Amino acid sequence: MDKQLQSSQAAPTKNGEAIRHLEQAITKGKHWYIALLEAIGLWTATEEIYNGHHYHYLIDDEAFDWLLLAERLCKAVDDLLPADEKMALLFRGIPPISLATEEFKKLVGSSKYHQYLNYFYGITVEEALIQAVQEEVRKEKYALGFGKKPEHVNEIYQRIYGATETVLLKQFRQARDYPQLISISLTELKEFAYWLFKYRLEHCDKAKVASDTNKALKKLRQQWADNGFPAILVADKPLGAVPYSLLCP
Fold it and tell me: Among residues 4, 49, 105, 178, which is most buried (max CB within 10 A)?
């Protein structure tokens, strides 16, 4: 596992340093978003319990949920932040200022940036793929006269992964030694999405992987445009996150 992010017990001093840096930098006049990214670069815990809430920042020891850490850090200095900009970042993913990819990478650190790309391509894009195929199935069923019927979840997962959601979720939980519960937590949903991403890379042919990933990216770009996003924080190429030849042959 990358040692830049460690257990919360292993490096409490570093995490406190990150919060102090964030508070002091904002107080001295630095833009809060720049200070936030610098604090993220200083942070070391992969997970922690804070105010009774379990924060899990690194999925599968590979995928960095930077917005979850941003939420945690924002809570520590909430009275110093403009509420509208903070809400736009945390709930819509819209940063208050645009940064070049290299600047973002420099502020959070190269290691965290690549872990962030793992999260983006492995979780954000994977979830967008499921949404995109869901829309395809819905339109096809409507054209066939089914109207507003319940979503055909099994067909969606069959098209993407070649197996039903129930079967895949059971396999995922068996692999992780998780209980086979009816409910699923938000953290487990993220873990499941990342597992599906890896499953797709391993079990689907290369051309389908590339086609489906491009479909998901197109869906995301459409969502960004619809929501008026001024820019994205990732490059169009998966720099070190997954093999480029798999995604864009």
Answer: 105
